[in-house]
Design brief:
- The protein is an alpha+beta fold and about 280 residues long.
- The chain has three domains: about 80 residues, 2-Layer Sandwich (Sulfite Reductase Hemoprotein, domain 1), CATH 3.30.413.10; about 70 residues, Sulfite Reductase Hemoprotein,Domain 2 (Sulfite Reductase Hemoprotein, domain 2, Alpha-Beta Complex), CATH 3.90.480.10; about 100 residues, Sulfite Reductase Hemoprotein, domain 1 (2-Layer Sandwich), CATH 3.30.413.
- The longest helix is centred in the last third of the chain and has 17 residues.
- Bound molecules: iron/sulfur cluster.
- Iron/sulfur cluster binds next to loops.
């Protein structure tokens, strides 16, 4: 069951879907923000009435109708793909705010930062005169209350701390879970390898080639397909093209060979794309 916030004509709403991940779930439509609890309860009741079943099992047996009829009086839009015509603005970098101040978006490399780095980021923001910090989509923190002038030294400090401040930073194209030794299930140090992979593949990454490095076959960090999915196993890193951790691998490489192997694949893909 998925509730995703989005704006409809400038008003906050929740896009509701069931029975799958972001790409595979069945879409029901949007409800008003204040109806989020009610729609959730009604969808859970649909499941509870059928015993111990998953939403996707209900979908397979009865289609979307069972869920739709339970919530249709709450829906404020017709069923449709939520992303059509709804491109997100780039959250990184400088943004002018209505009150005349500025906000600056910094990205967390591989969706992660340690407490010391966050503390130092907070200190740099405070030194630049910021009034607050907000979480934003895309694993980004938005620092608010800056002036245009003091945003530059803040951005330099953030970059020096390892945060992402440029949209072309290759680390934005790599998703990695915690991996070993943080996660007991991991077969490879996914997060530790990720910067090496990003650096090696950087010349060939342009945003159209997403790389997912997963410490094991659970795929926690990116449960949807990627251009290249890497899964840690006892035998090395298996590589899956245009799929998720559940799909069939086309190659296995030793962990220490992974950065070069990924760079070669990304180079080949870019070459293909340039000749289509
Ligand atoms: S994908 Fe595997 S290794 Fe990575 S965080 Fe999930 S369980 Fe741990």
């Amino acid at each position: 069951m998925r509730l995703r916030a989005q704006a409809i004509n400038g008003v906050a709403a929740l896009y509701v879907s069931v029975g799958g991940d972001r790409q595979r779930a069945a879409h029901l439509g949007c409800v008003a923000g204040q109806d989020g609890v009610e729609v959730t309860i009604r969808l859970l009741e649909v499941l509870a009435q059928r015993g111990r079943v998953r939403a996707r099992e209900v979908l397979a047996a009865e289609g979307i109708a069972a869920f739709h009829s339970a919530v249709e009086d709450l829906l404020v839009t017709a069923v449709g793909r939520r992303d059509s015509g709804n491109r997100r603005k780039e959250p990184l970098g400088l943004h002018g705010l209505r009150d005349g101040t500025f906000a600056y978006g910094v990205g967390l490399a591989f969706g992660h930062a340690d407490a010391t780095s966050l503390q130092r980021l907070s200190e740099a923001a405070e030194a630049a005169g910021a009034s607050g910090m907000r979480a934003a989509p895309g694993r980004v923190l938005i620092i608010i209350g800056l002036t245009q002038q003091n945003s530059s030294p803040f951005a330099a400090a953030a970059e020096a701390l390892g945060f992402i401040v440029r949209s072309e930073d290759p680390r934005r194209h790599v998703v990695a879970c915690a991996g070993a030794p943080i996660c007991a299930s991991a077969k490879i140090a996914a997060r530790a390898i990720a910067p090496l992979v990003a650096a090696a593949a950087a010349p060939h990454l342009d945003g159209s080639f997403k790389i997912h490095i997963s410490g094991c076959a659970k795929g926690c960090a990116h449960p949807v397909p990627a251009a290249l999915t890497v899964v840690g196993t006892a035998a090395g890193c298996v590589l899956i093209a245009d799929g998720s951790v559940q799909d069939t691998a086309f190659k296995t490489v030793a962990t220490n060979e992974l950065p070069d192997a990924v760079a070669e694949i990304a180079r080949g893909r870019k070459h293909e794309d340039n000749h289509v």
